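Lab notebook: predicted structure, single chain.

Context: the supervisor wants predicted structures on file for every construct in the current expression panel, including those that have not yet been purified. This is the next one on the list. No modifications to the sequence; it matches the entry in the shared construct table.
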Amino acid sequence: MKECPREFEVAEAVTSGRWPDASGLELRNHVSTCTVCKDIVLVATALYNERESAVQHASIPSAGLVWWRAELQARREAVRRAERPMTLAHSLAAASAAGVALALLGGLLPFAQELLTAFRNLPQLGLLIGGLAMLLIVAPLAVYFVLSDK
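Prediction complete. Output recorded below exactly as produced.
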């Protein structure tokens, strides 16, 4: 890579918008003979023009819209902060309910085993209880479908 001692000066002229009109004749003559500075002018001019175009076509929202968005963001953050303790309380309540359900199931396990033993001894009673359970499940569904408008 070749370097030119006037690279910085050329880049400064282009990025400040002085190139080529406000630049001196000596600098323009140098750029016409120096390949490194020609490349710098080419690239820097393209970047400068792109920046100017972006600045001119930038759409800046109104102050009211910016304020409204900031208010919405602040409210969302406040709601998140307020919900944190509730989320913790819900989590603790769910864990407690699961623990109580497991304790009840553990306590009812001997009774359930005794009931299953009784069902084995009395198959007719088991069928009767099973039929009653099915009736309790199917009857509300049948009533729902009969009385629904769909």
